[in-house]
Amino acid sequence: MVDTHLKDIASQSNAWPFQEALRLVERYKDTPPAKGYVLFETGYGPSGLPHIGTFGEVARTTMVRRAFEEISDIPTRLICFSDDMDGLRKVPDNIPQKELIAEYLGKPLTAVPDPFGTHESFGAHMNAKLRAFLDHFGFQYEFKSSTETYKAGEFDKTLLLLLERYNQVMDLMLPTLGEERQQTYSPFLPVSPRSGKVLLAKVVETKVNSGTIVYVEEDGSLEEVPVTGGHCKLQWKPDMGMRWAALGVDYEMYGKDHLSSAELYSAICRVAGGKEPEQFMYELFLDDKGQKISKSKGNGLTIDEWLRYAPQESLSLYMFQAPRKAKRLYFDVIPRAVDDYQTFLEKFEKEEGVARFNNPVWHIHEGNPPKSEGIPSFNLLLNLAGVAGTSDPKVLWGFITSYMPNLSPATHPFLDQLVNGAVNYYQDFIRPTKKYRFPTDAEAAALAALADYLEGLPDDAAPDGIQTEIYEIGKRFEFAELKLWFAALYETLLGQSQGPRMGSFVALYGKKETARLIRRALAKENLAA
Q1: How many angstroms separate the CA atoms of 190 and 184, rounded?
Q2: Residue 195: which H helix or E strand, with range?
């Protein structure tokens, strides 16, 4: 039972998942759903492996689902629907036994042998990959196969209604097609009883009484098949609208590339006797050059690559933030995403009321975020990896445990993920671009004063006090702007134009170690070595 007080507070949230959830509340404000639950759906094309976009769509849909559950007593379900009855259009480049698979072009993915030899079909193999992918990230969902759903007759009633209203469907579809395609188009794709292929065939007659269509086979002869029981499937645009109607889908997200077809999906849904779901369009991700990310081009960031450098929570945050804004999805967004996540987690513990429902970590952790551990930032760890000049996470842990003895990989696994990710990120992206310079005479005098100060500090000196003194040294040596003083620290000691909060860095790296680093810079040693 939803707590009425919390429900009222959550309903005031301006976080987009709650705004979406309120639309669903409005949808059923007068009468609850006859099916007894609100149905969320995400779709998946199993011709390729699940990817970062798959994660984003399921994660975002889950955020809306969880927000809805916070403000409504109506039960929910989330279906992940696999379009595995689609015909195999081309042989993927990254599979074995391509010659074998080439013989099955045009057949449903669930009728194509598994080239990996682990499942009963190629479609089943890819579906297993999808389920393993979703399970790995802890998503709560129900899997649904297009092939099984068609063959089990779950769509039969709706398919027969669309057959009866065939001309209405054609009136919607034909204006969207070219003149040549109009001559042979049919929303029904027969599965040939001869070849087993899903055919883009011309339908010459529809028989409502018998629930069949007559179409032109590949050899030019006529063939008659039922539209029910998996003997036909629908073209993908009518299929979306039919599915919404047949399953009673209440909420679905899609990328901007579907936006031009969205009204068509809705219109088909209405013709099929359903009410179109609440819909949410999200923007597509861009690469480092501002181009749309494409699986075939491989110009984006894969989920495995993100997880090499940062934990899942940071990726979920990136998916949460501004979903209707086109954003770059490239390696350079990772450090900020990690540190932003930690900042939001720290804020959550101090927040109350609606502020908590606005905080991204509420949505990332489905209303139950963990406690902040007060651990070093990702950027700080990156700089620590740099000055330590190491690819071994154990070296970083040595610095961490000397400063925070209560931390260890066993007691703080999230921090261990950050340490390993920071080492990887430093080695792959920061180390190759480092460019040290020697200090100017004016900078050298200030650096020497800083080294003197650090060498005289007691072991328990606090980061805030160190930071304050670093500021004071910059003022004392009359840098025109304090940012020039910090730039000098970063460029001479770290070999980069930007860096961490120096007080925290000194505390973590060590006061005497930082002083030695400064002395080396003053001696014009090669710190890149």
Answers
A1: 13
A2: none
Q: Is the pLDDT of residue 196 over 90?
A: yes
Q: Please say whether the beta carbons of 194 and 206 come within 8 A.
A: no
The kind and range of the H/E element at 255 are: strand 251-255
| Nearest to 455, CA basis, from 466, 464, 444, 471 | 466
Cα 403 to Cα 399, 509, 518: the distances in Å are 7, 8, 20
The two structure tokens encoding residue 528:
């890149």
Helices (H), 359-457: 360-364, 378-388, 393-403, 413-425, 441-455
Instruction: Give the C-alpha distances (Å, rounded to integers) separating 475 from 62, 235, 353, 471.
Output: 51, 70, 42, 6
| 39 DSSP β-pair partners | 77
Structure confidence at residue 460 as a pLDDT band (50, 70, 90)? confident
Whole-number Å distance between alpha carbons of 519 and 84: 65
E runs forming strands in 112-228: 142-145, 188-190, 203-207, 212-216, 222-226
| Claim: this prediction has a pTM higher than 0.90 | yes
- Tally helices (H) and strands (E) across the chain: 24, 12
Q: 4-152: CATH homologous superfamily?
A: HUPs (3.40.50.620)
CA 93 to chain centre: 24
Which residue ranges make up each domain of the chain? 4-152, 378-522
Contact (CB, 8 A) for 293 and 326: no
Average pLDDT of the segment spanning 439-450: 95
Return the ∠ at Cα 479 (arms to 476 and 485), rounded to 5°: 100
Position 295 pLDDT exceeds 60: no
> Between the CA of residue 87 and those of 146, 195, 392, what are the distances in Å?
12, 12, 48
Instruction: List CB contacts of 149: < 8 A, sequence separation 6 or more.
Output: 155
Helix, coil or strand: residue 466: helix
